[in-house]
């Protein structure tokens, strides 16, 4: 049996082209190499799992390919990586500084990647500062950190700074789809979308959620299975609740809520999720705002469709009701009741005569 390699490792890009969502950085770096404009100290900042280490390694290799021997084996000796998360003492940095002094045996540059550089101790930072101030001509430093604010200004001012971005949901989705296809994993597009959403901009996180769910679902990523595992309420519930509200079906709503709670879903997440659902219907009503809808393609169709059956007046009231219930939930002695009241109000929105909201507003 083949050993299982986690996707985050298996799919670490080896070329700038393959790096997703950071083209503002990869283009600049490629350009800098082509035009010999590379700084001697670079700082890669940004959230975790968005490609900092990956780009540092690619850049280090490119530098060696350009200025070095063509023998891959030789220039591997010209790339040094220090993980400051586990090697952060003054001695660790002194050892490194000691090495920096010697010119490379082959090639022109030695590249030092110092990852999680904010973890260096103060003393280590200070020791490093001198070297960074006047690095030997053959040394290039690539520092990476998730916590730019922890880097002292003297270091910041000596580095060319590259800010890595969170990766957009659509880019994450595309990458996951590519991997799913390569690995022969069945998926519903919208299930992949939910994973991408959950990853909150980090591709490494997306890949580890993906791996976990591939195992959990035995290589069949359905919306239902993914939602359940990630404790995301299946969109279908919200669509159903909207339909029931339009039909003024109070019993139906109370039953569906009961069902959701029984499944162990947090009622407060439910009511705020429902509020977002109405908000999404609202943006789906207007061609100008459809772009604000962050869902997969199939789900998007459902939104466009359901938005047709709601008036914007009803949606505004519905958003307000959910918002209020969310607030009441926190303060109420019987929080579940505050949600049930909200559901009853939702069911009454289109009733006309007995419209609770209208009565309340006029009385
Ligand atoms: N921008 C990206 N493009 C493609 N894959 C990425 C990207 N960012 C992260 N990854 C995936 O996540 C893994 C970890 O990325 P890494 O570069 O170590 O993140 P960071 O150093 O920013 O925390 C990579 O091996 C790769 O599989
Ligand atoms: Mg890293």
From TrEMBL:
GO terms for cellular component: DNA polymerase III complex. The keyword DNA repair does not apply. Its EC number is 2.7.7.7. GO terms for biological process: DNA-templated DNA replication. Residues 38-168 form the AAA+ ATPase domain. GO terms for molecular function: ATP binding; DNA binding; DNA-directed DNA polymerase activity; metal ion binding. It comes from the Bacteria. InterPro entries: AAA+_ATPase, ClpA/B, DNA_pol3_clamp-load_cplx_C, DNA_pol_III_gamma-3, DNA_pol_III_sug/sutau_N, DNA_polIII_delta, DNA_Rep/Repair_Clamp_Loader, HLD_clamp_pol_III_gamma_tau. Pfam families: DNA_pol3_delta2, DNA_pol3_gamma3, DNAX_ATPase_lid. It catalyses: DNA(n) + a 2'-deoxyribonucleoside 5'-triphosphate = DNA(n+1) + diphosphate. Keywords: ATP-binding, DNA replication, DNA-directed DNA polymerase, Metal-binding, Nucleotide-binding, Nucleotidyltransferase, Transferase, Zinc. SMART domains: AAA (SM00382). DNA polymerase III is a complex, multichain enzyme responsible for most of the replicative synthesis in bacteria. This DNA polymerase also exhibits 3' to 5' exonuclease activity. DNA polymerase III contains a core (composed of alpha, epsilon and theta chains) that associates with a tau subunit. This core dimerizes to form the POLIII' complex. PolIII' associates with the gamma complex (composed of gamma, delta, delta', psi and chi chains) and with the beta chain to form the complete DNA polymerase III complex. Belongs to the DnaX/STICHEL family. This is DNA polymerase III subunit gamma/tau. It comes from Apibacter mensalis.
């Amino acid at each position: 049996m083949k050993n299982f390699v986690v996707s985050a490792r298996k799919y670490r890009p080896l070329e700038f082209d393959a790096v997703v969502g950071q083209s503002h950085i990869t283009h600049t770096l490629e350009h800098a190499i082509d035009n010999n404009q590379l700084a001697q100290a670079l700082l890669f900042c940004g959230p975790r799992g968005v490609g900092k280490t990956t780009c540092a390694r690619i850049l280090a290799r490119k530098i060696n390919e350009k200025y070095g021997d063509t023998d891959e084996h030789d220039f591997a000796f010209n790339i040094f990586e220090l993980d400051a998360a586990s090697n952060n003492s003054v001695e660790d940095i002194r050892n490194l500084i000691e090495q920096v002094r010697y010119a490379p045996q082959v090639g022109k540059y030695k590249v030092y990647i110092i990852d999680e550089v904010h973890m260096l101790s103060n003393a280590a930072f200070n020791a490093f500062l001198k070297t960074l101030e006047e690095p030997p001509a053959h040394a290039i430093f690539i520092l990476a950190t998730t916590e730019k604010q922890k880097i002292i200004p003297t270091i910041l001012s000596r580095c060319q700074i590259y800010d890595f971005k969170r990766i957009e949901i659509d880019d994450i989705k595309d990458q996951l789809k590519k991997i799913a296809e390569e690995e022969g994993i069945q998926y519903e597009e919208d299930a992949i979308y939910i994973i991408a959403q959950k990853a909150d901009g980090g591709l490494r996180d997306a890949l580890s959620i993906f791996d976990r769910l591939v195992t959990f679902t035995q290589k069949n990523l359905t919306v239902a299975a993914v939602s359940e595992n990630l404790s995301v309420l299946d969109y279908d519930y919200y669509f159903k609740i909207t339909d029931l509200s339009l039909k003024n079906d109070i019993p139906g709503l109370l039953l569906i809520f009961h069902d959701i709670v029984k499944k162990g879903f947090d009622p407060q997440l439910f009511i705020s999720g429902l509020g977002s659902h109405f908000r999404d219907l609202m943006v789906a009503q207007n061609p100008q705002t459809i772009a604000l809808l962050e869902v997969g393609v199939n789900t998007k169709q459902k939104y466009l469709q359901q938005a047709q059956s709601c008036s914007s007046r009803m949606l505004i009231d519905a958003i307000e009701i959910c918002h209020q219930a969310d607030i009441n939930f926190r303060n109420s002695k019987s929080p579940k009741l505050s949600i049930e009241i909200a559901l009853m109000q939702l069911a009454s929105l289109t009733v006309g005569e007995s419209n609770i909201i209208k009565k309340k507003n006029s009385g």
